[in-house]
Design goal:
By secondary structure, this protein is α/β, with parallel strands linked by helices. It has five helices and seven strands, in the order H-H-E-H-E-H-E-E-H-E-E-E. Bound molecules: S-adenosylmethionine. Keywords: Membrane, Methyltransferase, S-adenosyl-L-methionine, Transferase, Transmembrane, Transmembrane helix.
C-alpha cells in the first residue's frame, strides 16, 4: 500500500515540477514581447485599488490582465463591473479557471483581445502594469476615449504626455529602491 502511495506522491511532484518549469519558461519567453508577463505583487494591488477611489457604478478594466490578480482583487471588494483584457491564450484560460473558483461581489468579464483595440468609452478606472513602450502605444487611446474624471492607475511606468491628466504618484519602498504607482485623473477638455 505504501509503495502505491509513494508512486502517487512522486507522480504529483512530477506534475508540479513540470507545471513550474512551464510557468518559468512561459515568463521568460514573454520577455520577447513589448509587454512581458510579470504578476503584480499583492500589496501593490491593494495600494492600486485604494488609489482608484472606486465608487458605485464604476466600470474598471485591467489592460493586460495576466491571470486576473487585479480584477479578482477588485471584484472581491466592490460590486462593480470589472473587465480583464488579455491576449495570451494561456493566461486567459488561467484567469477563466480562477473566475470559477474565486468569491466575488463584482461582475467579472475576461476578454481575450489586444487591449489596443478594446473600447474604453464607458470605463472609469483603468489599471495597468505595462512598460513605457506599451503605455506609449495606448497614450492616444487614453486621451481620446476616456471621459473626464476617469482614473488610470499605472504600476511602475508613467504616461509620456500628461497634459490631459492630473498626476500624482505613490511611493512603494522596495529594499533600497523606491518604486511608484502613478495615478492619473482625466481632466475636462477646457480645464
Ligand atoms: C506586466 S503583466 C501584468 C499582468 C496583470 N495585470 C497583473 O497585474 O498581474 C502585462 C500583461 O499584459 C499582457 N499584454 C501585453 N500586451 C498585450 C496586448 N496588446 N493586449 C492584451 N494583453 C497584453 C501580457 O500578456 C501580460 O499578461
Amino acid at each position: 500500500m505504501l509503495i502505491y502511495f509513494l508512486i502517487f506522491l512522486q507522480f504529483i511532484l512530477l506534475l508540479i515540477g513540470i507545471g513550474f518549469v512551464l510557468y518559468i519558461g512561459f515568463i521568460m519567453i514573454s520577455f520577447k514581447n513589448t509587454v512581458p508577463y510579470v504578476p503584480t505583487a499583492k500589496k501593490v494591488i491593494q495600494k492600486m485599488i485604494a488609489a482608484a477611489h472606486i465608487q458605485e457604478g464604476d466600470k474598471a478594466v485591467d489592460l493586460g490582465s495576466g491571470t486576473g490578480r487585479i480584477i479578482f482583487a477588485v471584484a472581491k471588494k466592490y460590486p462593480i463591473e470589472v473587465i480583464g483584457v488579455e491576449y495570451s491564450c494561456l493566461l486567459y484560460f488561467a484567469s477563466k479557471i480562477k473566475s470559477v473558483l474565486k468569491r466575488k461581489k463584482g461582475k467579472v468579464k475576461i476578454i481575450r483581445a489586444d487591449f489596443n483595440h478594446y473600447p474604453l468609452k464607458n470605463v472609469n478606472v483603468v489599471f495597468c502594469f505595462l512598460t513605457l513602450e506599451g503605455l506609449s502605444d495606448i497614450q492616444n487611446k487614453l486621451n481620446l476615449e476616456l471621459m473626464p474624471g476617469a482614473r488610470i492607475i499605472s504600476y511602475l511606468f508613467p504616461l509620456k504626455k500628461k497634459d490631459e491628466f492630473q498626476e500624482y504618484k505613490i511611493p512603494m519602498p522596495d529594499g533600497k529602491k523606491v518604486k511608484y504607482i502613478f495615478v492619473y485623473t482625466k481632466l475636462a477638455r477646457n480645464a
